[in-house]
Amino acid sequence: MALPEVKQNETDARLATLTMPDGGCLAEARHAALSRVQTMGLPGRRDEYWKYTRPDTLTAAEAPTAAVLDSGEAPLFDEFDRLKVVFVDGVFDAAASDDLSLEGISIERISDICDKDIHWAKDLYGVLEARGQTPVARPLAALNTAFARDGVAIRVTGTPSKPVNLIYRHAAESSDAILHHVIRVETGASATILENGPAASRFNKCMEIDLADGAALHLVRAQGRDHERRAATHLFARLSTESVFKSFTLTVNGVLTRNEAVIELTGDDAAAHIAGACVGDGDFHHDDTVFITHDAVNCESRQVFKKVLRNGATGVFQGKILVKEGAQKTDGYQISQSLLLDGDSQFLAKPELEIYADDVVCSHGSTSGAIDEEGLFYLRSRGIPTSEATDLLTLAFLAEAVEEIEDADIAASVVDRLEGWLARRR
Amino acid sequence: MLEIKNLHVKLEEEDKQILKGVNLTVEAGKVHAIMGPNGSGKSTLSYVLSGRDGYEVTDGEASLAGEDLLEMEPEERAAAGVFLAFQYPVEIPGVGNMTFLRTAVNAQRKARGEEELSASDFLKEIRAKAKTLKIDADMLKRPVNVGFSGGEKKRNEILQMAMLEPKMCILDETDSGLDVDAMKLVAEGVNALRDEGRGFLVITHYQRLLDHIKPDVVHIMANGRIVKTGGPELALEVENNGYADILAEGV
After folding, report:
1. Complex ipTM above 0.90?
2. Quick check: keyword Nucleotide-binding in the entry (chain B) (predicted)?
3. Where are the domains of chain A?
């Protein structure tokens, strides 16, 4: 079916600004992805899946500008021993990065793989993204697969001694970065991936993760700081038997952020925990959209999303748990909550459950509310000023999501960062 | 120390007068008990003194060591030396007990222009005080009051009182929900804090708490006023005969 004229024009305009890398083992996946984009068209306001979030600035031909800010504070995760992989405005920076060799893990640039005829990543690049196009179209992810020139292919074969930190730096005011990462964690292997930084004035990132039997991956990312950036990210993960995937995302401001996670539990006894905490001020718009499919027995999924909004900020949560026929003993939990610190902010939520198995435990809840006045008075009665008491209660509200971070030191550094943000806003 | 003159208070949201001219003076070093039937205004008095929203003072005064309490925000009253041990301490998930207490101690010190307590000094002090109150380290690490038993919550209130060292301690029905052993423990904590520079206002329904915390003065409150004041024997009289006779006299 032909696209509506407006959508066709917008899609054509965007595609005209991009050049697909030539040849290599990923060429087929790229062309297939381009074909998906051309068929779906880029998202528009009339698309049901984007009803709460305006995609215009994410799809416009030219990237909007965003000032390069330096808050003076050390980047998150700087205090940890980790392997640094640095991208500046979406381009790998070898000089700023560490030597990429580390026992138990191999890290290669996607641009290097492009030149090869055969590579393991060929079986993953664009594959999970393509699977994640039904029942909902995700054209920005397909666009990413088609045009990403950089990113990393990570293969975890053991248990690396330290986390890999993907660091995204922003240096040009109108940078338009597209990064695509693929991660394969082999049987019984495990790793931690950290991501942080504002990346670019406009950032389109896609990460495909394939977990083999008994594999584990922990992903902790921090998006931006106080920044005018716009970002659309997609996380596609497939979990095999007894594998574990835990993801936590901290988002602090930014004009527009849309984070989509598409998780498939395809092996028995697998567990996926997807969590996010965001704090936003003013014209901040933050959208978490999650789709979890249970397609195996005795799997567990948790979605925990917390948003703190003030001065007119907007938060969106769209989360779905689909339990397929035969996925018995599924334990699915989904909670999305927002703390509205004033009457101007808003939270829009669409939690969904779709269940075709009869022996499952699934729950979902979505709430928004103001600060707890009882708690506030209790803290003030102990001498804590209102602003500090509000911050304490705000951190307390976010705690359930932060607790999803497995490493206590990493969790503590995330809390420190949140405390700093809250203190600066007093 | 605490001086309350002709205090009239009504609920903000409804036209209901709760306190109808309370007069009370608590001297430093003294323990005053307030007893009275339900609905007499005892808890309202404690909330008004600590600055809780929802109450409107329509007349009267309340001061601590000469400072007008009614002009202050709750945190300012706390820094000035008011401490309210809640009847139902609030649960605050996600805030560690230790973090909360350290924030409170240092906020008060800062407000008074004192140097903040270092992490190690704070730890030493809280450990010592927790030991006296038989509060185990695990309880200090848990979120404020979350999952605490009734006794643990009240002991936690007394621990806060011990750490914050207020001038005026107001205990709002601290005995509710406590078994005999827990009550003894809480009372021991209170008694350890009794000194010449500190006043206590112990609000209670029953004599049994006063068996452990010996009051210097006992007041009976009814219908928004203090209707009778006496020594410790007044509490015993209430225990033996109830409020009926006293109320009849008071009216």
Report:
1. yes
2. yes
3. 1-65+78-373
